[in-house]
Design a protein that fits this description.
The protein is built from 12 helices and no strands. It is found in: Membrane.
Length: 309
Amino acid sequence: MKRLMTWVYGPVFWVGFIGWALWLVQVDAPQWLGLVFVTAVAVSFIAEGWMPYEPQWNRNQGDRRRDMIHALVNESLNAVGLLSLPVLTALLAFDGVWPRAWPLWEQLLLAIFIADAGITLMHYASHRVAALWRLHAVHHSVQRLYGFNGLMKHPLHQMLEATAGLAPLILLGIPTDVALLLALAIAIQLLLQHSNVDMRLGPLRWVFAWAPVHRFHHMKYGRAGDVNFGLFFNLWDWLLGTAFYRQDYRMGQGDLGIGSRPDFPRDYVAQLCDPFKTVRLSKEPPVPVELVQDAHMQVAQRCPGGDAE
């Protein structure tokens, strides 16, 4: 049973919760979308306890309270953005552009595709532009990966990513119900992307940016982690030349974080202040020999200091 679940967990979780949300909106009950999210979080934690990828990542490392604060603040910011959406759409949208005649699920897929492009490009820029990296580094400071990590972001960077993903949709005149579904879909995707569930993806690893693929993005070895930027899909990484996956390398506790900043602050308030302080960088750890044979990792070794931006 557990072996079967490792194969079906990702698709069932994604389709099940997003499908439930679609049904609620179609029956005019969007007020219950919060229940969908809470249930998804509960299922995520239960699955991580039942079939963990790395058992150590399930243990509280003095970060659970901080991560909950990050999640509450960032989800509150999302709610404020959704509340302002009708006004922004009325002021900025080009009339008649959004395909409102399409079935709701098709409109949601279109919104996901467009938002994914904007958020992925902002994510990519955040590893290239020093000022953006200072904000984004908060997310990369994690020492373990589990569902809530996807919501652990500096609120300023959260707003930048949201703007990059939502601005094109506002101009196109996205309806409020589709935007609500998009926000829920992003939350579901973040749970899957940072999950500590031992998932098997098979051919889906070429399509979906779920945990087995995204874990490599959190490697602490300088630019070795400059891979797999996509939020929903790996398409953008194929186009950017940043797609990377190694089935034979198992990520562990010591692979995560920011190599040049092993003492990155762990307190919530200190993390909010960190991007605006002068910091001292230490020498990055070398890329593990098991990965050096890969061409991307060889480039990463020749370009140290990638996470110092």
